[in-house]
């Protein structure tokens, strides 16, 4: 009998293994990024956020307010740092506001 069948695994370990085996991590990261963005930015900015997408290590944020887009553009590096801290890994290298 293999080691896998004889040892007791926690539910989190089993789920992590399932995610890794089925290459689901990038999809989960995309969902997590959206949740972290809305939690971190609050309802004021979330209401103006029309789309969030992650391609490679670049996060694209579409905003319906040009004034807000301009304001956020001054703090892009801080946004990247805060998002990565909240995600628990360095997933994002750059933010592009559209």
Summarize the structure.
InterPro entries: DciA-like. The protein is built from five helices and three strands, in the order αααββααβ.
Cα gyration radius (Å): 17 Å
| Low-confidence runs | none
Helix content: 55-70%
Overall body shape: elongated
Query: What is the residue-mean pLDDT, rounded to a whole number?
Result: 87
Number of domains: 1
The helix/strand class is alpha+beta
Helix/strand order, N-terminal first: HHHEEHHE
Arrangement of strands in the largest sheet: 1-2-3
Ordered list of secondary-structure elements with their pairings:
Elements lengths: L2 H4 L4 H11 L3 H22 L2 E7 L2 E6 L2 H8 L2 H12 L6 E4 L1
Parallel strand pairs: 2-3
Antiparallel strand pairs: 1-2
Structure, explained:
The protein is of the alpha+beta class. It has a single domain (10-97), classed as GMP Synthetase, Chain A, domain 3 (2-Layer Sandwich), CATH 3.30.300. 58% of the residues lie in helices and 17% in strands. The chain has 5 helices and 3 strands; from the N terminus they run αααββααβ. The protein has helices spanning 3-6, 11-21, 25-46, 66-73, 76-87; strands at 49-55, 58-63, 94-97. It has a 3-stranded mixed sheet. Helix 3 (25-46) packs across helix 5 (76-87). The protein is elongated and about 55 Å long. The relative contact order is 0.14. The model has no long low-confidence stretch (mean pLDDT 87). It comes from Mangrovimonas spongiae. This is DUF721 domain-containing protein. It holds the Pfam family DciA.
